[in-house]
Write a structure and sequence with these properties.
This protein is of the alpha+beta class. It has helices at residues 82-94, 148-157, 163-179, and strands at 3-12, 17-24, 30-37, 41-46, 52-60, 65-69, 72-74, 96-108, 117-128, 142-147. Keywords: Hydrolase.
């Protein structure tokens, strides 16, 4: 364990805070830790009754490329219920709702420099109602409906590189396989 001596805010943005802590290590060495505070998020693996998966494609500015991902989004307020956030994000990003959600656990995305946690859900019994996609104004999304097994292969062979998508799809794959 490391004991925090001081904490200072380096940056306080709309989404993230960057902190710098002075800490004492177990061996007595004093050092610094810089890290990003993130509000937390959810990601949803939407699987249709006929074995398809709904993905979204969007441009990710930090890496300057388009990525194929499962629908996801951050909590809007502290203490937000992850399931409610998952329902909102699925509908906003795809226009779909689900009658059934299964919690697939959570992941720490980059624990070397961030406290971000993403809760993962499998969504089934999907339906499209009279509602439509309503992404955030700074999101431009394209919805794709793909074969689930082919998407698993894309995760394995490196065509899909987004970690939340890979972990979510693999957990959903083994969950569904265990039900057969």
């Amino acid at each position: 364990m490391e004991k925090t001596i001081t904490t200072s805010v380096i940056f306080n943005g709309m989404l993230l805070r960057v902190l710098k802590d002075e800490v004492v290590l177990e061996n007595g060495v004093v050092t610094t830790r810089e890290y990003v505070q993130h509000p937390g998020a959810v990601a949803v693996v939407p699987v249709t009754d006929d074995g398809k998966i709904i993905l979204v494609e969007q441009y990710r500015y930090p890496i300057k490329q388009m990525l194929l991902e499962i629908p996801a989004g951050k909590f809007d307020k502290p203490g937000e219920n992850p399931l409610e956030c998952a329902k909102r994000e699925l509908e906003e990003e795809t226009g779909y709702r689900a009658q059934e959600y299964t919690y697939l656990g959570y992941i720490h995305t980059t624990p070397g420099f961030s406290n971000e946690v993403i809760h993962l859900y499998l969504a089934r019994k999907l339906y499209k109602g009279t509602f439509t996609m309503d992404p955030d104004e700074d999101e431009i999304l394209k919805v794709h409906i793909k074969d689930f097994d082919e998407t698993v292969q894309k995760c394995i062979n490196g065509e899909i590189t987004d970690v939340k998508t890979i972990v979510g799809i693999m957990r959903a794959y083994f969950k569904l396989r265990g039900e057969k």
